[in-house]
Amino acid sequence: MCSLGNRQSVHGILFNGSFASFWCFDRGGGVFTHECNIDRDFPDLIRCLMSLCLANNTELGLEPMFQQSGVKDVELFGSVLQRYLVVQRSLFTISKTLHITSELDGRGTTVFKVITAPDGRTTDEVTEAGEETVIPEAAVIKFSWQSTSQALEIALFRRAQEFNVEGIATLYRYSSPRKLSDGHRKQLGLKVGIDYVDRELHVQVTGPVCIPLYRVVDEDDFAAAFKSLISAHHSLYKKAGILHRDISINNLMVDETNPQRGVLIDLDLAIQVRDGERVLGIRPSTVGTYPFLALDLFRDEPLTQRWYRHDLESFLYVLAWILSRFDEDGNEVHQTAAFDDWIFGEKKYIFLAKRGFLREAERFRPVRFSRLQKSWMPELGALFYSGYNFRAKCIAGLVPYEDETLGGFVTFETVMEQLQKPLPEPEIDATVQLVPEPGTIISFNVPERPPPAHPGTITANISVTGLTPWEIYDRFDDGLKAALASKDLTDVNDALAKFSVPEAEKIVELLQCSEILRVEDSTHDER
Protein backbone atom coordinates (compact mmCIF):
# COMPACT_ATOMS: atom_id res chain seq x y z
CA MET A 1 0.00 0.00 0.00
CA CYS A 2 2.95 2.33 0.61
CA SER A 3 5.17 1.52 -2.39
CA LEU A 4 3.08 2.59 -5.40
CA GLY A 5 -0.05 4.13 -3.91
CA ASN A 6 -2.39 2.08 -6.11
CA ARG A 7 -3.92 -0.18 -3.44
CA GLN A 8 -6.86 0.28 -1.11
CA SER A 9 -5.90 -2.77 0.97
CA VAL A 10 -3.31 -5.55 1.21
CA HIS A 11 -3.73 -9.19 2.22
CA GLY A 12 -1.39 -11.65 3.85
CA ILE A 13 -1.05 -14.93 5.70
CA LEU A 14 0.82 -15.16 8.98
CA PHE A 15 2.33 -18.58 9.74
CA ASN A 16 3.18 -19.28 13.36
CA GLY A 17 4.57 -22.79 13.61
CA SER A 18 1.73 -25.15 12.74
CA PHE A 19 -0.84 -22.36 12.89
CA ALA A 20 -1.89 -19.78 10.30
CA SER A 21 -4.09 -16.67 10.27
CA PHE A 22 -5.31 -14.43 7.45
CA TRP A 23 -4.79 -10.66 7.63
CA CYS A 24 -6.12 -7.66 5.74
CA PHE A 25 -4.82 -4.11 6.18
CA ASP A 26 -6.66 -1.05 4.94
CA ARG A 27 -6.71 2.60 5.99
CA GLY A 28 -8.61 1.65 9.14
CA GLY A 29 -5.88 -0.69 10.34
CA GLY A 30 -5.59 -4.48 10.40
CA VAL A 31 -8.29 -7.15 10.52
CA PHE A 32 -7.33 -10.79 11.08
CA THR A 33 -8.89 -14.20 11.58
CA HIS A 34 -8.44 -16.64 14.43
CA GLU A 35 -5.50 -18.99 14.02
CA CYS A 36 -6.24 -22.29 12.31
CA ASN A 37 -4.29 -25.50 12.76
CA ILE A 38 -2.58 -26.32 9.47
CA ASP A 39 -2.78 -30.09 10.04
CA ARG A 40 -6.28 -30.29 11.48
CA ASP A 41 -7.90 -27.55 9.34
CA PHE A 42 -5.97 -28.27 6.15
CA PRO A 43 -9.09 -28.47 3.90
CA ASP A 44 -10.32 -25.09 5.16
CA LEU A 45 -6.87 -23.60 4.57
CA ILE A 46 -6.85 -24.87 0.98
CA ARG A 47 -10.31 -23.41 0.37
CA CYS A 48 -9.13 -20.01 1.62
CA LEU A 49 -6.04 -20.13 -0.59
CA MET A 50 -8.15 -21.04 -3.62
CA SER A 51 -10.48 -18.12 -2.87
CA LEU A 52 -7.50 -15.78 -2.91
CA CYS A 53 -6.30 -17.25 -6.21
CA LEU A 54 -9.73 -16.71 -7.79
CA ALA A 55 -10.24 -13.20 -6.39
CA ASN A 56 -10.38 -10.27 -8.81
CA ASN A 57 -8.12 -7.22 -8.67
CA THR A 58 -10.42 -5.17 -6.48
CA GLU A 59 -10.87 -8.04 -4.02
CA LEU A 60 -7.09 -8.36 -3.84
CA GLY A 61 -6.83 -4.70 -2.88
CA LEU A 62 -6.17 -2.83 -6.14
CA GLU A 63 -7.75 0.62 -6.20
CA PRO A 64 -10.52 0.21 -8.83
CA MET A 65 -10.14 3.80 -10.08
CA PHE A 66 -6.79 2.86 -11.70
CA GLN A 67 -7.49 1.45 -15.15
CA GLN A 68 -5.75 0.65 -18.41
CA SER A 69 -7.10 -1.22 -21.35
CA GLY A 70 -5.12 -4.05 -22.90
CA VAL A 71 -3.01 -4.68 -19.79
CA LYS A 72 -2.83 -8.02 -18.06
CA ASP A 73 -4.32 -8.05 -14.57
CA VAL A 74 -1.03 -8.82 -12.86
CA GLU A 75 0.64 -5.82 -14.53
CA LEU A 76 -1.88 -3.43 -12.95
CA PHE A 77 -0.26 -4.06 -9.57
CA GLY A 78 3.26 -3.31 -10.82
CA SER A 79 3.05 0.34 -11.88
CA VAL A 80 0.82 3.38 -11.82
CA LEU A 81 2.41 5.26 -14.70
CA GLN A 82 0.23 5.66 -17.79
CA ARG A 83 -2.80 4.31 -15.91
CA TYR A 84 -5.91 6.41 -16.41
CA LEU A 85 -8.59 7.57 -14.01
CA VAL A 86 -11.98 9.14 -14.51
CA VAL A 87 -13.09 11.83 -12.05
CA GLN A 88 -16.44 13.52 -12.70
CA ARG A 89 -16.42 12.47 -16.36
CA SER A 90 -12.94 13.89 -17.01
CA LEU A 91 -10.16 11.52 -18.08
CA PHE A 92 -6.68 11.82 -16.56
CA THR A 93 -3.50 9.87 -17.24
CA ILE A 94 -0.89 9.47 -14.51
CA SER A 95 2.53 10.74 -15.59
CA LYS A 96 4.46 10.95 -12.31
CA THR A 97 4.24 10.00 -8.64
CA LEU A 98 4.70 13.11 -6.47
CA HIS A 99 4.11 11.82 -2.94
CA ILE A 100 3.23 8.60 -1.13
CA THR A 101 2.65 8.51 2.61
CA SER A 102 4.54 5.69 4.35
CA GLU A 103 1.81 4.33 6.58
CA LEU A 104 -0.57 1.38 6.59
CA ASP A 105 -3.50 3.09 8.28
CA GLY A 106 -4.59 6.72 8.54
CA ARG A 107 -5.17 9.12 5.67
CA GLY A 108 -2.65 7.44 3.37
CA THR A 109 -2.26 10.55 1.23
CA THR A 110 -1.00 9.81 -2.29
CA VAL A 111 -0.39 12.47 -4.94
CA PHE A 112 0.17 12.06 -8.69
CA LYS A 113 0.90 14.40 -11.55
CA VAL A 114 -1.61 13.76 -14.35
CA ILE A 115 -2.27 14.82 -17.92
CA THR A 116 -5.82 15.94 -18.67
CA ALA A 117 -7.52 14.53 -21.76
CA PRO A 118 -8.34 17.36 -24.21
CA ASP A 119 -12.08 16.61 -24.21
CA GLY A 120 -12.31 16.72 -20.39
CA ARG A 121 -10.71 20.05 -19.61
CA THR A 122 -13.89 22.12 -19.22
CA THR A 123 -15.70 21.80 -15.89
CA ASP A 124 -19.35 22.41 -15.13
CA GLU A 125 -18.50 25.30 -12.81
CA VAL A 126 -18.41 28.91 -13.96
CA THR A 127 -16.63 31.98 -12.64
CA GLU A 128 -18.33 35.15 -11.43
CA ALA A 129 -17.91 36.52 -14.95
CA GLY A 130 -19.88 33.56 -16.29
CA GLU A 131 -16.84 31.87 -17.83
CA GLU A 132 -16.28 28.13 -17.64
CA THR A 133 -13.43 26.88 -15.46
CA VAL A 134 -10.79 25.12 -17.57
CA ILE A 135 -8.62 22.33 -16.17
CA PRO A 136 -4.99 22.83 -17.21
CA GLU A 137 -3.28 20.19 -19.29
CA ALA A 138 -1.02 19.23 -16.37
CA ALA A 139 -2.77 18.85 -13.01
CA VAL A 140 -2.49 17.02 -9.70
CA ILE A 141 -4.63 14.19 -8.32
CA LYS A 142 -4.67 13.57 -4.59
CA PHE A 143 -6.05 10.45 -2.89
CA SER A 144 -6.75 10.76 0.84
CA TRP A 145 -8.77 8.62 3.25
CA GLN A 146 -10.22 11.25 5.58
CA SER A 147 -12.13 10.66 8.76
CA THR A 148 -15.87 11.00 8.21
CA SER A 149 -16.07 13.00 11.45
CA GLN A 150 -13.95 15.83 9.99
CA ALA A 151 -15.19 18.75 7.95
CA LEU A 152 -15.05 18.03 4.23
CA GLU A 153 -11.91 19.47 2.66
CA ILE A 154 -13.89 20.00 -0.54
CA ALA A 155 -16.23 22.45 1.24
CA LEU A 156 -13.27 24.47 2.52
CA PHE A 157 -11.66 24.61 -0.93
CA ARG A 158 -14.90 25.81 -2.46
CA ARG A 159 -15.34 28.43 0.25
CA ALA A 160 -11.79 29.67 -0.37
CA GLN A 161 -12.46 29.93 -4.09
CA GLU A 162 -15.78 31.65 -3.43
CA PHE A 163 -14.00 34.34 -1.42
CA ASN A 164 -11.20 34.70 -4.01
CA VAL A 165 -8.44 33.57 -1.69
CA GLU A 166 -5.10 33.96 -3.44
CA GLY A 167 -2.18 31.57 -3.25
CA ILE A 168 -3.91 28.26 -2.56
CA ALA A 169 -4.39 25.32 -4.88
CA THR A 170 -7.38 25.49 -7.24
CA LEU A 171 -9.87 22.61 -7.04
CA TYR A 172 -11.13 21.39 -10.44
CA ARG A 173 -12.69 17.98 -9.83
CA TYR A 174 -13.74 15.99 -6.80
CA SER A 175 -15.03 12.52 -6.02
CA SER A 176 -15.69 10.45 -2.88
CA PRO A 177 -16.29 6.94 -4.24
CA ARG A 178 -16.47 4.89 -1.02
CA LYS A 179 -16.06 4.54 2.73
CA LEU A 180 -14.36 1.86 4.79
CA SER A 181 -17.74 0.98 6.24
CA ASP A 182 -19.01 0.08 2.76
CA GLY A 183 -16.54 -2.81 2.37
CA HIS A 184 -15.52 -5.97 4.18
CA ARG A 185 -15.74 -4.40 7.62
CA LYS A 186 -19.49 -4.11 7.22
CA GLN A 187 -19.71 -7.74 6.06
CA LEU A 188 -17.72 -8.81 9.13
CA GLY A 189 -20.12 -7.00 11.43
CA LEU A 190 -17.53 -4.54 12.75
CA LYS A 191 -19.03 -1.38 14.26
CA VAL A 192 -17.98 2.15 13.36
CA GLY A 193 -16.71 4.12 16.35
CA ILE A 194 -16.19 0.96 18.40
CA ASP A 195 -14.05 -1.35 16.32
CA TYR A 196 -12.57 1.26 13.98
CA VAL A 197 -12.71 4.89 12.81
CA ASP A 198 -14.62 5.20 9.57
CA ARG A 199 -12.82 6.91 6.70
CA GLU A 200 -13.92 8.07 3.27
CA LEU A 201 -11.77 8.16 0.15
CA HIS A 202 -11.50 11.69 -1.23
CA VAL A 203 -10.15 12.17 -4.75
CA GLN A 204 -9.28 15.73 -5.77
CA VAL A 205 -7.99 17.19 -9.00
CA THR A 206 -6.14 20.44 -8.31
CA GLY A 207 -3.61 22.77 -9.85
CA PRO A 208 -1.07 24.09 -10.48
CA VAL A 209 1.55 21.33 -10.47
CA CYS A 210 3.93 22.21 -7.66
CA ILE A 211 7.25 21.33 -6.11
CA PRO A 212 7.96 21.55 -2.35
CA LEU A 213 9.29 24.84 -1.04
CA TYR A 214 12.42 23.07 0.22
CA ARG A 215 13.31 22.15 -3.38
CA VAL A 216 13.80 25.82 -4.37
CA VAL A 217 17.54 26.29 -4.85
CA ASP A 218 17.81 30.05 -5.33
CA GLU A 219 17.81 32.02 -2.06
CA ASP A 220 15.95 35.04 -3.45
CA ASP A 221 13.31 32.79 -5.07
CA PHE A 222 12.90 30.96 -1.76
CA ALA A 223 12.48 34.23 0.16
CA ALA A 224 9.84 35.49 -2.26
CA ALA A 225 7.94 32.18 -2.19
CA PHE A 226 8.03 32.01 1.62
CA LYS A 227 6.56 35.50 1.92
CA SER A 228 3.88 34.71 -0.63
CA LEU A 229 2.90 31.60 1.35
CA ILE A 230 2.44 33.61 4.54
CA SER A 231 0.31 36.06 2.54
CA ALA A 232 -1.75 33.18 1.09
CA HIS A 233 -2.30 31.74 4.57
CA HIS A 234 -3.41 35.16 5.84
CA SER A 235 -5.76 35.58 2.87
CA LEU A 236 -7.30 32.18 3.64
CA TYR A 237 -7.89 33.23 7.24
CA LYS A 238 -8.95 36.83 6.66
CA LYS A 239 -11.19 36.40 3.61
CA ALA A 240 -12.65 32.91 4.12
CA GLY A 241 -12.30 32.58 7.90
CA ILE A 242 -10.36 29.30 7.49
CA LEU A 243 -7.44 28.36 9.74
CA HIS A 244 -5.07 25.90 8.08
CA ARG A 245 -3.69 24.21 11.26
CA ASP A 246 -1.10 22.06 9.44
CA ILE A 247 1.72 24.33 8.29
CA SER A 248 4.50 21.85 7.47
CA ILE A 249 7.22 21.17 4.92
CA ASN A 250 4.81 18.98 2.92
CA ASN A 251 2.08 21.63 2.62
CA LEU A 252 4.18 24.62 1.57
CA MET A 253 4.69 24.37 -2.18
CA VAL A 254 5.71 26.55 -5.12
CA ASP A 255 4.41 26.70 -8.66
CA GLU A 256 6.49 24.40 -10.86
CA THR A 257 6.72 27.13 -13.52
CA ASN A 258 7.31 30.06 -11.13
CA PRO A 259 9.50 29.31 -8.08
CA GLN A 260 8.66 32.69 -6.52
CA ARG A 261 4.93 31.90 -6.33
CA GLY A 262 4.02 29.94 -3.24
CA VAL A 263 1.01 27.61 -3.25
CA LEU A 264 -0.62 26.50 0.00
CA ILE A 265 -2.13 23.02 -0.24
CA ASP A 266 -3.88 20.39 1.87
CA LEU A 267 -6.89 21.58 3.87
CA ASP A 268 -7.35 18.13 5.46
CA LEU A 269 -6.95 19.52 8.97
CA ALA A 270 -8.19 23.05 8.26
CA ILE A 271 -11.32 24.37 9.90
CA GLN A 272 -13.59 27.36 9.49
CA VAL A 273 -13.24 29.54 12.59
CA ARG A 274 -14.94 32.73 11.40
CA ASP A 275 -17.98 33.63 9.34
CA GLY A 276 -17.47 37.23 8.39
CA GLU A 277 -16.87 39.07 11.66
CA ARG A 278 -18.58 36.39 13.71
CA VAL A 279 -16.23 34.02 15.52
CA LEU A 280 -17.45 30.43 15.49
CA GLY A 281 -17.38 28.46 18.72
CA ILE A 282 -14.94 25.74 17.67
CA ARG A 283 -13.44 23.38 20.21
CA PRO A 284 -9.64 23.86 20.14
CA SER A 285 -7.50 20.99 18.91
CA THR A 286 -3.78 20.19 18.85
CA VAL A 287 -3.84 18.57 15.39
CA GLY A 288 -0.95 19.23 13.03
CA THR A 289 2.50 17.97 12.11
CA TYR A 290 4.39 17.43 15.36
CA PRO A 291 7.76 19.19 14.76
CA PHE A 292 6.02 22.37 13.61
CA LEU A 293 3.32 22.78 16.27
CA ALA A 294 3.34 26.03 18.23
CA LEU A 295 4.71 26.27 21.75
CA ASP A 296 1.24 26.60 23.30
CA LEU A 297 0.27 23.17 22.01
CA PHE A 298 2.89 21.54 24.27
CA ARG A 299 1.84 23.23 27.49
CA ASP A 300 0.37 21.25 30.37
CA GLU A 301 -2.61 23.60 30.55
CA PRO A 302 -5.56 22.78 28.25
CA LEU A 303 -5.58 24.75 25.03
CA THR A 304 -8.29 27.42 25.25
CA GLN A 305 -8.17 28.61 21.66
CA ARG A 306 -6.38 27.70 18.42
CA TRP A 307 -5.19 31.10 17.24
CA TYR A 308 -3.99 32.39 13.88
CA ARG A 309 -0.61 33.17 15.53
CA HIS A 310 -0.11 29.45 16.20
CA ASP A 311 0.10 28.88 12.44
CA LEU A 312 2.48 31.85 12.09
CA GLU A 313 4.74 30.21 14.65
CA SER A 314 4.64 27.01 12.60
CA PHE A 315 5.97 28.97 9.62
CA LEU A 316 9.01 29.93 11.71
CA TYR A 317 9.70 26.29 12.66
CA VAL A 318 9.33 25.17 9.03
CA LEU A 319 11.80 27.86 7.95
CA ALA A 320 14.37 26.74 10.52
CA TRP A 321 13.81 23.08 9.60
CA ILE A 322 14.40 23.67 5.88
CA LEU A 323 17.49 25.83 6.47
CA SER A 324 19.07 23.26 8.78
CA ARG A 325 18.00 19.87 7.38
CA PHE A 326 18.07 20.34 3.58
CA ASP A 327 21.13 21.04 1.46
CA GLU A 328 21.50 23.58 -1.33
CA ASP A 329 19.85 21.22 -3.83
CA GLY A 330 16.83 20.63 -1.60
CA ASN A 331 17.88 17.13 -0.53
CA GLU A 332 17.44 16.14 3.09
CA VAL A 333 20.71 15.90 4.98
CA HIS A 334 20.20 12.63 6.81
CA GLN A 335 23.27 12.87 8.98
CA THR A 336 22.10 16.04 10.73
CA ALA A 337 20.26 15.78 14.03
CA ALA A 338 19.13 19.42 14.02
CA PHE A 339 15.85 19.84 15.88
CA ASP A 340 15.38 16.15 16.64
CA ASP A 341 14.34 17.36 20.09
CA TRP A 342 11.21 18.81 18.43
CA ILE A 343 10.11 15.26 17.58
CA PHE A 344 11.21 12.88 20.30
CA GLY A 345 10.62 12.91 24.02
CA GLU A 346 7.95 14.08 26.40
CA LYS A 347 5.88 17.18 25.70
CA LYS A 348 7.57 19.18 28.45
CA TYR A 349 11.00 18.60 26.91
CA ILE A 350 9.77 19.55 23.44
CA PHE A 351 8.29 22.70 25.01
CA LEU A 352 11.65 23.60 26.55
CA ALA A 353 13.55 22.86 23.32
CA LYS A 354 11.29 25.11 21.25
CA ARG A 355 11.32 27.87 23.85
CA GLY A 356 15.11 27.74 23.83
CA PHE A 357 15.12 28.02 20.05
CA LEU A 358 12.90 31.13 20.16
CA ARG A 359 15.22 32.70 22.72
CA GLU A 360 18.34 32.08 20.62
CA ALA A 361 16.99 31.68 17.08
CA GLU A 362 20.05 33.38 15.60
CA ARG A 363 22.46 30.79 16.98
CA PHE A 364 21.51 27.67 15.06
CA ARG A 365 23.79 26.76 12.15
CA PRO A 366 22.01 26.60 8.78
CA VAL A 367 22.99 24.19 6.03
CA ARG A 368 21.79 26.63 3.37
CA PHE A 369 20.58 30.20 2.84
CA SER A 370 22.77 31.93 5.41
CA ARG A 371 21.41 35.36 4.46
CA LEU A 372 17.90 34.33 5.51
CA GLN A 373 19.22 32.94 8.77
CA LYS A 374 21.07 36.17 9.58
CA SER A 375 18.30 38.52 8.45
CA TRP A 376 15.09 36.75 9.47
CA MET A 377 15.69 34.30 12.29
CA PRO A 378 16.85 36.65 15.10
CA GLU A 379 13.96 39.08 14.58
CA LEU A 380 11.24 36.45 14.09
CA GLY A 381 12.41 34.44 17.08
CA ALA A 382 12.45 37.61 19.19
CA LEU A 383 8.84 38.42 18.22
CA PHE A 384 7.50 35.16 19.60
CA TYR A 385 9.84 34.99 22.60
CA SER A 386 9.01 38.57 23.61
CA GLY A 387 5.30 37.87 23.21
CA TYR A 388 5.43 34.78 25.40
CA ASN A 389 7.51 36.65 28.02
CA PHE A 390 5.05 39.52 28.01
CA ARG A 391 2.17 37.11 28.58
CA ALA A 392 3.98 35.42 31.45
CA LYS A 393 4.57 38.79 33.17
CA CYS A 394 0.93 39.78 32.71
CA ILE A 395 -0.29 36.49 34.17
CA ALA A 396 2.10 36.79 37.12
CA GLY A 397 0.99 40.38 37.78
CA LEU A 398 -2.71 39.63 37.19
CA VAL A 399 -2.68 42.19 34.38
CA PRO A 400 -5.15 41.74 31.49
CA TYR A 401 -3.54 40.97 28.15
CA GLU A 402 -4.62 40.05 24.64
CA ASP A 403 -3.74 36.40 23.98
CA GLU A 404 -4.73 36.28 20.32
CA THR A 405 -1.59 38.21 19.31
CA LEU A 406 0.47 37.84 22.53
CA GLY A 407 -0.17 41.46 23.41
CA GLY A 408 0.30 42.68 19.84
CA PHE A 409 3.75 41.14 19.39
CA VAL A 410 2.71 38.47 16.86
CA THR A 411 0.48 39.51 13.98
CA PHE A 412 0.59 39.16 10.22
CA GLU A 413 1.81 42.75 10.04
CA THR A 414 4.66 42.37 12.57
CA VAL A 415 5.89 39.19 10.89
CA MET A 416 5.74 40.63 7.38
CA GLU A 417 7.52 43.78 8.58
CA GLN A 418 10.55 41.63 9.38
CA LEU A 419 10.32 39.61 6.17
CA GLN A 420 10.10 42.72 3.99
CA LYS A 421 13.46 44.03 5.15
CA PRO A 422 16.08 43.79 2.37
CA LEU A 423 18.35 40.79 2.60
CA PRO A 424 22.07 41.48 2.88
CA GLU A 425 24.06 41.26 -0.32
CA PRO A 426 25.40 37.76 -1.05
CA GLU A 427 28.84 37.22 0.39
CA ILE A 428 31.44 36.81 -2.31
CA ASP A 429 33.96 34.10 -1.56
CA ALA A 430 37.42 35.70 -1.62
CA THR A 431 40.14 33.84 -3.51
CA VAL A 432 43.77 34.45 -4.38
CA GLN A 433 44.44 34.72 -8.11
CA LEU A 434 47.64 35.34 -10.08
CA VAL A 435 47.25 38.30 -12.44
CA PRO A 436 50.23 39.62 -14.44
CA GLU A 437 50.87 43.35 -14.32
CA PRO A 438 51.05 45.24 -17.62
CA GLY A 439 54.24 44.44 -19.44
CA THR A 440 54.88 41.19 -17.57
CA ILE A 441 54.12 37.52 -18.06
CA ILE A 442 53.69 34.77 -15.48
CA SER A 443 55.31 31.41 -16.13
CA PHE A 444 55.92 28.24 -14.15
CA ASN A 445 59.13 26.24 -13.89
CA VAL A 446 58.29 22.82 -12.49
CA PRO A 447 61.44 21.21 -11.03
CA GLU A 448 62.48 17.74 -12.00
CA ARG A 449 62.91 15.00 -9.46
CA PRO A 450 66.59 15.09 -8.41
CA PRO A 451 68.73 11.95 -8.37
CA PRO A 452 69.51 10.46 -4.97
CA ALA A 453 72.17 12.55 -3.23
CA HIS A 454 75.52 10.95 -2.26
CA PRO A 455 76.54 11.18 1.39
CA GLY A 456 78.39 14.37 2.12
CA THR A 457 77.25 16.28 -0.98
CA ILE A 458 75.64 19.71 -0.68
CA THR A 459 72.31 20.16 -2.47
CA ALA A 460 72.08 23.29 -4.58
CA ASN A 461 69.13 25.69 -4.82
CA ILE A 462 68.12 25.57 -1.17
CA SER A 463 65.27 28.07 -0.63
CA VAL A 464 64.71 30.26 2.41
CA THR A 465 62.44 27.51 3.74
CA GLY A 466 65.34 25.10 3.92
CA LEU A 467 63.72 22.96 1.21
CA THR A 468 64.67 22.39 -2.41
CA PRO A 469 62.20 23.45 -5.16
CA TRP A 470 61.41 19.79 -5.75
CA GLU A 471 60.66 19.19 -2.07
CA ILE A 472 58.32 22.19 -2.04
CA TYR A 473 56.59 21.09 -5.24
CA ASP A 474 56.27 17.52 -4.04
CA ARG A 475 54.43 18.64 -0.88
CA PHE A 476 51.58 20.26 -2.82
CA ASP A 477 48.39 18.28 -3.37
CA ASP A 478 47.88 16.39 -6.63
CA GLY A 479 45.44 18.98 -8.06
CA LEU A 480 47.87 21.86 -7.63
CA LYS A 481 50.81 19.81 -8.92
CA ALA A 482 48.86 18.89 -12.06
CA ALA A 483 47.95 22.54 -12.62
CA LEU A 484 51.57 23.65 -12.24
CA ALA A 485 52.72 20.87 -14.57
CA SER A 486 50.31 22.14 -17.24
CA LYS A 487 52.03 25.57 -16.99
CA ASP A 488 48.65 27.13 -17.75
CA LEU A 489 47.79 30.22 -15.67
CA THR A 490 44.05 29.52 -15.77
CA ASP A 491 44.55 25.98 -14.44
CA VAL A 492 46.77 27.26 -11.63
CA ASN A 493 44.25 29.95 -10.66
CA ASP A 494 41.45 27.36 -10.64
CA ALA A 495 43.53 25.23 -8.30
CA LEU A 496 44.32 28.19 -6.01
CA ALA A 497 40.61 29.09 -5.81
CA LYS A 498 39.96 25.83 -3.96
CA PHE A 499 42.09 26.99 -1.02
CA SER A 500 41.24 29.54 1.64
CA VAL A 501 42.87 32.95 1.28
CA PRO A 502 45.54 32.32 3.97
CA GLU A 503 46.36 28.90 2.48
CA ALA A 504 46.59 30.29 -1.07
CA GLU A 505 48.80 33.20 0.05
CA LYS A 506 51.20 30.74 1.69
CA ILE A 507 51.30 28.63 -1.49
CA VAL A 508 52.12 31.70 -3.63
CA GLU A 509 54.90 32.63 -1.20
CA LEU A 510 56.39 29.12 -1.54
CA LEU A 511 56.10 29.23 -5.32
CA GLN A 512 57.98 32.53 -5.41
CA CYS A 513 60.80 31.60 -3.02
CA SER A 514 61.38 28.31 -4.87
CA GLU A 515 61.29 30.14 -8.22
CA ILE A 516 58.59 27.78 -9.48
CA LEU A 517 56.56 30.94 -10.07
CA ARG A 518 58.32 33.43 -12.32
CA VAL A 519 57.31 36.93 -13.33
CA GLU A 520 59.18 38.11 -16.40
CA ASP A 521 59.25 41.21 -18.57
CA SER A 522 57.20 40.63 -21.69
CA THR A 523 59.07 43.29 -23.76
CA HIS A 524 62.05 42.36 -25.95
CA ASP A 525 64.77 44.50 -27.43
CA GLU A 526 64.40 44.94 -31.15
CA ARG A 527 67.63 44.34 -33.05
Can you describe what's shown?
With 527 residues, the chain is α+β, with helices and mostly antiparallel strands. It has helices at residues 42-54, 73-76, 153-162, 184-187, 219-240, 308-325, 347-359, 370-375, 377-396, 412-419, 469-474, 478-486, 489-496, 501-513; strands spanning 9-16, 19-26, 29-32, 36-37, 84-87, 90-100, 110-116, 122-126, 132-134, 138-147, 170-175, 199-207, 210-212, 242-243, 252-255, 258-264, 271-272, 274-275, 278-279, 440-444, 517-521. A 6-stranded antiparallel beta sheet has the order 5-6-7-10-12-11, with helices on one face. Helix 7 crosses helix 9 and helix 12 runs antiparallel to helix 13 (489-496). The longest helix is centred in the middle third of the chain and has 22 residues, at 219-240. Mean pLDDT is 85; it is low at 126-131 and 456-460.
Instruction: Tell me the distance between the termini.
Output: 87 Å
Beta-strand proportion: 15-25%
Radius of gyration (Å):
32 Å
Q: Can you give the helix content as a percent range?
A: 25-40%
**Largest beta-sheet details:** 6 strands, antiparallel
